[in-house]
Design brief:
By secondary structure, the protein is α/β, with parallel strands linked by helices. It has 2 domains: about 260 residues, Rossmann fold, CATH 3.40.50; about 140 residues, Rossmann fold (3-Layer(aba) Sandwich), CATH 3.40.50.11610. Helices cover about 40% and strands about 15% of the residues. The chain contains 16 helices and 16 strands. Helix 13 links the parallel strand 12 and strand 13. Helix 7 runs parallel beside helix 8. The longest helix is centred in the N-terminal third of the chain and has 22 residues. It holds the Pfam family E1_dh. Its cofactor is Mg(2+); thiamine diphosphate. It comes from Macrostomum lignano.
């Protein structure tokens, strides 16, 4: 069908008349006396026979394995693993203290920037009170995996420092040129290596490289972080062709993590949205099919989905999610909406108890306020949300004096959707209206993904429920991802918070 004579007839007439490269090269070698025509014929016939024999033998093959087609078959990775057993992701208190001590100190004689001295003092104070902010929770996740022998690799734009200057995983001596110190590479003897490296603004190339790294090594936490989540759009080819569909197309699992800073905080449309809706649209679960909610439900969901899409709100949940990514008995990509303002928000801290003992990743976090203690039948509205908007909703609920009548639940893992935990909340508040609240515009964010799933869950599992549909509170539809105007931004927030606090 691809006939070049249609459009380039004269050129391809000349090409057709021209001897091919093999013939020209053969004539040159014969003229030089390097080979004879007979030697060439013999070699050509031998090669033809190799191809013909292989073609004939292929007809006798009774079956093939997927690994026969893979250049990196992960020898032994899947052996002895129970695909339906959830991994334990907590660690001991001693482990947290050891990592925290290393993360909050530098070697003697190392000349640290004065501003970073304050940062390290702050880490030491958090350690003393057994509290973790976002940077500490991340360090605990990375450090604990390193001490368990798992390589951790993070690349992207400003990742060493962190776009919002919160991470500081590579410290620079202020008096010695090129003298650096990486605390997480100095936790203990025999630990795995932590590789953290800044990259150029070439998302397509760097994400593609990290994807290849993850395909080659399943026993590592491989992450690519965007400077702002919006910037993943220049790597859309890698996301569409490989990350979202690689397992279905080529039977290749990947545990690549995409860290995408996301959140509406008054910045412009190129620095607000990681386009959460695109990733949810490419999730392969069926909104019209409610899976069997049995004991294997959670792991079966994780096994069947093409990737995980999350938007967590606490350092502890971030900690567990990163560890789960490596400790699962299989590999799936993780798309994580990461915070900006929550990095330093005092309310967005976790206790060490949430990372030790029997703690684990929470796909949904139930209401933590008064409604959890009050009579659930008195709750008139159940708000479901994801991400940092939760903290704004809690503040507004307190301001309007509705702590006892409005419950707020956080969906931390959006895809695959936590039907079982949402059902539990629906049954807990039988007389409450259900509303999805998001800071994104109505044609963006999670609304289109959540709406049919909640409605189908209510229809199939809550036959006696009075209020049978989930409603919407959020920004109106928009072509632009954000207002780009501070006053309009604040007006939009005020309006959807008012809608969320309305009892109807």
């Amino acid at each position: 069908m691809d006939e070049p004579m249609f459009t380039q007839p004269l050129m391809y007439k000349k090409i057709k008349e021209h001897k091919n490269v093999l013939q020209l090269y053969l004539e040159k070698l014969i003229s030089e006396g390097t080979v004879t025509q007979a030697e060439y014929d013999e070699e050509s016939q031998r090669y033809d026979k190799v191809c013909e024999d292989a073609f004939t033998n292929a007809k006798s093959v009774k079956g093939v394995r997927n690994r026969d087609w893979l250049d990196s078959p992960w020898d032994g990775f899947f052996e002895g693993r129970d695909a339906m057993k959830a991994p334990a992701t907590s660690v001991t208190l001693d482990r947290l203290n050891k990592i925290g001590q290393v993360f909050s100190t530098v070697p003697q004689g190392f000349k640290l920037h004065p501003g970073l001295k304050r940062t390290l003092r702050g880490r030491a104070e958090l350690l003393e009170h057994e509290q973790a902010d976002w940077a500490m929770g991340e360090a605990f996740a990375f450090g604990s995996l390193l001490t368990e022998g798992y390589h951790v690799r993070l690349s992207g734009q400003d990742v060493e420092r962190g776009t919002f200057s919160h991470r500081h995983h590579v410290l620079h001596d202020q008096e010695k040129d090129l003298a650096t110190y990486v605390p997480l590479n100095n936790i203990e003897q025999g630990q795995a290596t932590y590789t953290v490296c800044n990259s150029s603004l070439s998302e397509y190339a760097v994400m593609g490289f990290e994807l290849g790294y993850s395909l080659n090594d399943p026993n590592a936490l491989i992450m690519w972080e965007a400077q702002f989540g919006d910037f993943n759009n220049t790597a859309q080819c890698i996301i569409d062709q490989f990350v979202s569909s690689g397992q279905q197309k080529w039977v290749r699992q990947s545990g690549l993590v995409l860290l995408l800073p996301h959140g509406y905080e008054g910045m412009g449309p190129e620095h607000s949205s990681a386009r959460l809706e695109r990733f949810l649209q490419m999730s392969n679960d069926d909104p019209d099919h409610i899976p069997v909610l049995d004991e294997d439900f959670m792991m079966q969901q994780l096994h069947d989905i093409n990737w995980f899409v999350c938007n967590v709100t606490t350092p502890a949940n971030y900690f567990h999610l990163m560890r789960r990514q490596v400790l699962l008995p299989f590999r799936k990509p993780l798309v994580l909406m990461t915070p900006k303002s929550l990095l330093r928000l005092p309310e967005a801290r976790s206790s060490f108890a949430e990372m030790t003992g029997d703690s684990s990743f929470q796909r949904l976090i139930p209401d933590q306020g008064p409604p959890a203690k009050a009579d659930p039948k008195e709750v008139v509205k159940l708000l479901l949300c994801t991400g940092k908007v939760y903290y704004e909703l809690v503040k507004e609920r307190e301001r309007t004096g509705q702590d006892d009548t409005i419950a707020i639940c956080r969906v931390e893992q959006i895809s695959p959707f936590p039907y079982d935990l949402v059902l539990k909340e629906l049954n807990k508040y039988p007389f409450a209206r259900v509303q999805w609240v998001q800071e994104e515009h109505k044609n963006m964010g999670s609304w289109f993904y959540v709406q049919p799933r909640v409605n189908n869950l209510i229809r199939s599992h809550c036959p006696d429920r009075t209020h049978r549909h989930v409603s919407y509170a959020g920004r109106p539809p928009s072509a632009s991802a954000a207002a780009g105007n501070k006053q309009l931004h604040l007006m939009e927030i005020a309006q959807f918070l008012k809608d969320a606090m309305s009892p109807v």
